[in-house]
Amino acid sequence: MSIKRADVIVIGAGLVGSSAAYFLSKEGLKVVVLEKNAVGSGTSGHAPASLGLSLHYTEPPVLGEMSRWGSQQTMELAPAVAQETGIDVHFKMHPYFILAFSPQAWQEIRRLAPLQNLDYELLTPAECYQREPQLNREVEVYGALWVHWAARVDAYRLNLALARAAEQQGAQFLTRTVTALVKEGGKVAGVLTSNGEPILSDKVVLAMGVWTPDAAKWLGIPLPVHAIKGEQLLLEYDGPPILDAHWHGWGISSPPMSHLLITRRGNSYVLGTTGGPSNETYVFDNTTRPEAEHAIISFATRLLPCLKAATVAGRLTGPQPIPDDGLPILGPVPDLDGVYVIAGNPGVQCCASWGKLARDLVIGRPLAYSLKPFLPERFTKPVQAKHGLLAVGRGRL
């Protein structure tokens, strides 16, 4: 299919790109989405997709507020788009359970909890064991945060649903690799693709995830996005049911890992861990490291010894796009009108609000929040503080 012109081009068909296409096509715009692989083939197809404000997205306050609002938007969008398309996205509300296994972790949880502005409880160790009697009593628990406002969704299915809904509204998804931007003066005029076809448009949304640095050479500005490898195991367990919640264990491992988790899905459990950022050019790697699998299983069985009877039913590994300072990159690029970047974490939680952000930037609507801390131009100077996932384990726990 040859397309000569579009009202807006979206590069990337992950959750953010598909959400952008969904909300832009709702406005009656001719939207073309260009994806070099397949819908949801990157981060979005490899995410556990728990919705709610993780404590490591609490600071700075602008990140916490954006993440909380973004999760709320996605909680509203997920069941709605499932109904529109008939695709079951496995959406379910459930609590968030963050346990402290060291005095430092408990102190940090109590400090951060009030900043969430959410409905929560601080649990004593006895109350933790009451919520889940199978919790290992040989591991000392200092307390826990119980957040009532949380949910889960299948990120890949949600991605497919958003793409299908966008197509139903007229958006077109093409398998193309973008090689350059077409420019006219200080404005974007379209893109060039690997098959030699230019597609013209004066609005381009970059939703490229860990491949965002590929666009830096088109724009002439730094876009430092690292790939943090996320590794997951799917466990099948037929024993007594475990509390249906999103679990985090703070201070149970060395070095500290606040990002190990367990999520109930019927009699299946998704467990995951996250490695450090890579400074190398990213090549998609879906292999699970033996040391990561060992760490995941060790955490799970130490937390809940009953899971020693579980079997590994599957492995899923993929990248997480993390900019240099841990904050997402959101907004227009300097010195080239019509190009907007949306990249970073928490992308699953914020996919709905970031899709709306793309819409509002393209059509010129007032924005829901200030983009000043997140603008691409900030990387013209060295970044200082680290936030989000990059702040985890940096002496805090």
Q: Mind describing the biggest β-sheet?
A: 8 strands, mixed
* Strand tally: 20
**Helix content range:** 10-25%
Shape: globular
CATH architecture of the largest domain: 3-Layer(bba) Sandwich
Q: Write down the Rg.
A: 21 Å
Low-confidence runs of at least 5 consecutive residues: 254-259, 393-397
Output the strand order for the largest sheet. 6-7-5-15-16-17-14-18
Mean pLDDT: 87
Distance between the termini: 54 Å
Number of helical segments with 4 or more residues: 8
Q: CATH class of the largest domain, please?
A: Alpha Beta
Helix/strand order, N-terminal first: EHEEHEEHEHEEHEEEEEHEEEEHEEEH
- Total number of domains: 2
Strand fraction equals 25-35%
Fold and architecture overview:
This protein has helices at 15-26, 61-85, 103-112, 125-131, 155-168, 216-219, 290-303, 351-363, and strands spanning 8-11, 31-35, 50-51, 92-93, 96-100, 120-123, 143-147, 151-152, 172-175, 178-184, 187-193, 198-200, 204-206, 225-236, 246-250, 261-265, 268-278, 311-323, 329-332, 339-343. It has 397 residues and is of the alpha+beta class. It folds into two domains: 8-47 and 156-225 and 325-391, FAD/NAD(P)-binding domain (3-Layer(bba) Sandwich); 94-150 and 227-322, 2-Layer Sandwich (D-Amino Acid Oxidase, Chain A, domain 2), CATH 3.30.9. Helix 2 crosses helix 8. The chain is globular and about 65 Å long. The termini are far apart. Residues 254-259 and 393-397 have low confidence and may be disordered.
